[in-house]
Design a protein that fits this description.
The protein is an alpha+beta fold. It is built from ten helices and ten strands.
């Protein structure tokens, strides 16, 4: 039997079967791509730090400018792999919130609660807390949980009236936490050893950021932004929100007021600003007062990386005020 491949036979095959050959090539590429996508390591909840803004702010800087600043400052730990910054509008707000909350893809929300929006019951901050206050940290709760995370895992211990960092305990915890992580298959690799030490720094920052924020709030209570949940909702729709379950809510600190930051090298209005208009609608200035940072509580899904939000808050306090210039006790 003559099975010799000749130019003529090859030309005939390509002429009549080129479509089949093309389909086979496409299928091979698709299957290979699918296998790679499924097998490739993905960022888990917590390894992506997501910032959402909701309030229609004006700004002289872009979201990429903020991302560059955070990267240059080394704000987040080694285990935060990606960063996202997204602006929401009232259009499709509920649908987008439902979607991102279902996959825990939201770390902090920046909203506005200006005097004018309070008077008009149009505050994006109050809208956020009325709708999602059950999964948003109070600032005091965030600080308390961060410190408890360090103490309960024996990362930090009370010693002689102060506190001490237990580095060996943290290194052992890293070994257990990264067991099976495809990034750290070889415990003897330099990358593994470097990140093991970075884990010590990560935990140290969790504790110290919590301590600094706690003492900063004691010295500067104007940073607290308090609200009694459902106040705006009741004002807008008393029939729906008139039930007992919406009454008697406690006033709590649901956010940090960036507008209270003063004395820093930068101005918050470079990133987030509320426009001030006169009676004719003409722009007369901008303000940061009433621009609020709130933190979502997805601790059950990101127990180790929930407190990266403290680094984000303290980044603002450090760079946009002089409130962290003093001495702090109980650091480790």
């Amino acid at each position: 039997m003559d099975n010799k491949i000749t130019k003529r036979r090859l030309a005939n095959t390509l002429a009549y079967d080129w479509v089949k050959i093309l389909v086979v090539i496409v299928l091979i590429v698709f299957v290979w791509s699918l296998a790679y996508t499924i097998g490739a390591p993905r960022a888990s909840t917590g390894q992506t730090f997501s910032i959402y803004t909701y309030g229609g702010f004006s700004s002289s800087k872009t979201p990429n400018d903020l991302a560059d600043e955070l990267k240059e400052e080394g704000v987040f730990s080694y285990d935060v792999l990606t960063f996202s910054n997204r602006e929401l509008t009232s259009e499709y707000y509920s649908q987008i919130m439902m979607s991102v909350i279902s996959i825990q893809e939201l770390d902090v929300m920046i909203t506005e609660d200006s005097t004018l929006s309070q008077e008009n019951n149009s505050s994006s901050f109050r809208d956020l807390i009325d709708g999602y206050g059950d999964i948003i940290y109070t600032v005091d709760g965030l600080i308390s949980d961060a410190k408890r995370y360090c103490l309960d895992n024996a990362f930090v211990s009370a010693v002689n009236g102060g506190y001490e960092l237990n580095s060996d305990v943290i290194r052992d915890y890293f070994d257990r936490r990264m067991d099976g992580d495809p990034r750290f298959r070889d415990p003897s690799s330099q990358r593994y050893l470097d990140c093991r030490e970075e884990e010590v720094l990560r935990v140290q920052n969790v504790w110290n950021n919590a301590v600094r924020l706690e003492q900063c709030l004691q010295n500067h209570p104007e940073l607290r932004h308090n609200y009694t949940r459902f106040t705006q909702a009741v004002a807008l729709d008393p029939e729906t929100y008139g039930g007992e379950e919406y009454q008697g809510q406690e006033e709590l600190t649901y956010g940090i007021n960036l507008g209270a930051l003063t004395g820093g090298s930068k101005s918050v209005t470079e990133l987030y600003a509320i426009s001030l208009l006169d009676d004719s609608g003409e722009l007369i200035g901008v303000t940061a007062d009433g621009i609020i940072i709130s933190v979502f509580n997805f601790r059950d899904y990101q127990i180790d990386l929930q407190y990266e939000s403290l680094s984000f808050i303290n980044y603002f306090i450090k760079n946009y005020s002089n409130f962290l210039d003093g001495e702090f006790i109980n650091l480790v």
